[in-house]
Amino acid sequence: MPEQQETQWMTEEHKQVLRYGFKIKEKLYSERSVFQQIDVVDTDFYGRMLFLDGAVMTTEQDEFIYHEMITHIPLLGHPNPESVLIIGGGDGGAVREVLKHPSIQEVVLCEIDGMVIEACKRYLPSISGGLNDPRVDIHIRDGIEFIAEHKNRFDVILVDSTDPIGPGEGLFTESFYKNVRDALTPGGIMVNQSESPIAHVREVALVYQLLRKVFPQVTPYIATVPTYPGAYWSWAYCMKERYQGPFSQINDLLAVDIEQSTRYYNRQIHRAAFALPNFVRERTRTDFETPASC
Ligand code: SPD
What is the model's pLDDT at position 44? Predict the structure, then answer.
């Protein structure tokens, strides 16, 4: 009798009320680091996927949306970004996009878990390829400690974190945001991933309340990332100083070039990403009170 292969699924459980399932073709990597459970699997629908502690971090099929949005919006909003710090982002997707910008002299990546970098270099080369570029300086360290040691140092800081549980929790605090602000050069911009206004109502409200205590200008922007809970995702665009013009200027000349190599980002998307539905405006307001049911 031929052996029957059991169908295997990788599931992300969200807050004990939702389950997202992905049919697995092959399990490629499954290890526990000091910080978290790391899994890379090949799936029928989304290609290879990276999970940390059972949560989807990135997939070959839709990673470009997230990585283009966390990088090109701030980099094209800054007049001349030379020095970029990425906290988290061990898969290398944000690094790959940052390296497309001709003004960049250095990209510093501070990732707490070296095993994430190694797994992604081996199994997700289309995402992690930029990690071997000589302009990239990788520090395997806790971003909370690292940021506290740098003042007026980076033109753009990207916080490409996990969700606010586990190793990523400290990256969603007021003291961390203050240190990020102080590590920016004058005119600097910080963008952090700020969770889903659909699936993380409480977390989104808290993030924006904390950010607004620290940064003079905080503006949410949005896109859809199909594999994340809620699918509808947000980032916070935070400026070290209040900007007198429109909150997000665009380096249009450079954007024309960048658009040639992107699959999601273009100048129209850049402007449209800041157009917020009323419920997102409401949930990211400082005085929003999360209903008990969320
Ligand atoms: N719930 C998933 C949140 C993950 C955000 N960061 C993803 C890292 C991709 N570089």
Answer: 94
pLDDT of residue 247: 65
* pLDDT, tens only, 93-140: 999 999 999 999 999 999 999 999 999 999 999 999 999 999 999 999
Amino acid (one-letter) located at 240 = K
Residues 131, 97: Cα–Cα separation, whole Å: 11
**From the CB of 193, is ligand 1 less than 6 Å away?**
yes
Nearest CA to ligand 1 atom 8: 57
Pairing of strands 184-193, 55-59: unpaired
Say yes or no: CB of residue 58 within 6 Å of ligand 1: yes
What does the pLDDT read at residue 3?
Answer: 65
**Closest atom of ligand 1 to CA, residue 66:** 9
Task: Please give the positions annotated as active site.
Answer: 160
What pLDDT, on the 0 to 100 scale, is given for residue 278?
98
Low-confidence ranges of the chain (pLDDT < 50): none
Query: Of 127, 110, 157, 133, which is closest to residue 63 (Cα–Cα)?
Result: 127
DSSP state at residue 46: T
How many whole angstroms separate alpha carbon 255 and alpha carbon 9? 40
Domain residue limits, the chain: 8-59, 63-284
Cα pseudo-dihedral 121, 123, 126, 129, rounded to 10: 10
The pLDDT of residue 293 is: 75
Ranges assigned E (strand) in 67-167: 83-88, 106-111, 136-140, 154-160
* CA–CA gap between residue 278 and residue 275 (Å, rounded): 10
Q: Is 91 near ligand 1, meaning CB less than 6 Å away?
A: yes
Q: Which amino acid is at 222?
A: I
CATH of domain 8-59: 2.30.140.10
User: What CATH number should be reported for the domain whose range is 63-284?
Assistant: 3.40.50.150
pTM of the predicted model as reported, rounded to 2 decimal places = 0.96
- What single-letter amino acid sits at 147? I
